[in-house]
Amino acid sequence: MSIQIRNLYKSFHDNQVLRNVDLDVKEREIVVLMGLSGSGKTTLLRCLCDLETADSGEILINDSYLLKEEGGRHGVSELPAVSASQCTSESD
Predict the structure, then answer these.
(1) Is 62 left (phi over 0), alpha (psi -120 to 50) or beta?
(2) Distances in Å between the alpha carbon of 3 and those of 14, 21, 44?
(3) Could you point out which of 9, 11, 14, 19 has its C-alpha 20 to 30 Å from the C-alpha of 48?
(4) Rounded distance between C-alpha atoms, residue 75 and residue 38, angstroms
(5) Which residues contact 62 (CB under 8 A, 6 or more apart)?
(6) Which of 3, 19, 4 minimizes the C-alpha distance to 56?
(7) Which residues lie across from 18 on neighbouring strands?
């Protein structure tokens, strides 16, 4: 599974949590999100899982748009369902 995030923004009222986030995760690559409490780690993951809607930006999963900015509006494409087990690495 590959993930691409471009120019992602998310705020809650006056608190801007995600600012201009760009991320590329290649297939089979392992990535760790680290940061202080309140830095936006969970919000980023919630946006990736479509549990939260970003204010602006683009999210692609396997080259299909989950979130696409089109002229200031967001369009959501139909993506095949992804289970939690597909998002975790297999144990050796």
Answers:
(1) left
(2) 28, 13, 12
(3) 14
(4) 28
(5) 1, 2
(6) 19
(7) 10
Residue ranges, the chain, pLDDT below 70: 70-92
**60 token code pair:** 């692609």
Residue range 2-19, pLDDT digits in tens = 999 999 999 999 999 999
Positive or negative torsion for Cα 72, 4, 8, 43:
positive
Output the CA torsion sign for 70, 3, 88, 81.
positive
Give the span between the Cα atoms of 66 and 56, in whole angstroms: 12
Q: 22 by DSSP, 3-state: which?
A: strand
Provide the token pair at 53: 């809607």
